[in-house]
Amino acid sequence: MIIREAKVKDAEQIAEFQLAMALETENIQLDKTTVDLGVKHVFDDQSKGTYYVADRDGRIIASLLTTYEWSDWRNGTVLWIQSVYVSPEFRETGVYKKMYSHIQGLVKKEDRLKGIRLYVDQSNTPAQQVYQKLGMTAEHYQLFEWLKD
User: Fold this and answer.
1) Are 114 and 71 within 8 A, CB to CB?
2) Handedness of CA 112, 139, 92, 68 (dihedral sign)
3) pLDDT tens for residues 54-70?
């Protein structure tokens, strides 16, 4: 298995993962056309973020998206990990750990990158346990949001 930056040819699989994740974690049926376009826009405009995939023998088994937050406190960029999905048959096999290590390695070697953040649904305790095992903490901030319907 290798972790690599996603290519445009991976967009369809990434979109399928996002549809599955929304249904699985929040019981939300997303609009496929909207998700397809949303994924495509990341590839069209890299300022929106970068997708990474776990590729096992040519099969995409997981994906995640990193987006960017400017931190004036740190004079640098914090990467946000979002849209994480691992195919069910590969969960609890270290796939996400390897993906996280890849992103952490990018942050460690780039002076302009200052850290990693992510958010997780409060009811998604399995994901929270994974993040805690990797050394992430939930002690600093609580996320509040307002989203237009």
Assistant:
1) yes
2) negative
3) 999 999 999 999 999 99
88-93 average pLDDT score: 95
Residue with tokens 């998206």: 65
CATH architecture for the domain at 2-133: 3-Layer(aba) Sandwich (3.40)
* pTM score: 0.88
CB–CB of 47/98 below 8 Å? no
Q: Give the span between the Cα atoms of 146 and 84, in whole angstroms.
A: 21
Tokens standing for residue 15: 């979109």
Q: Hey, what amino acid is at 45?
A: D
Question: Alpha helices, DSSP H only, in the chain?
Answer: 11-26, 32-44, 95-109, 125-133
Cα angle value 96/28/98 (rounded, 5°): 5
Which string of DSSP letters, residue by residue, matches 49-75? -EEEEEEETTEEEEEEEEEEEEETTTT
Beta-strand relationship, 59-71 and 50-56: antiparallel
Query: Any idea where the domains of the chain sit in the sequence?
Result: 2-133
Please give the C-alpha separations between residue 32 and each of 39, 45, 81, 88, in angstroms, as whole numbers: 11, 20, 22, 20
Residue 83: which of 118, 122, 48 has the closest Cα? Answer: 118
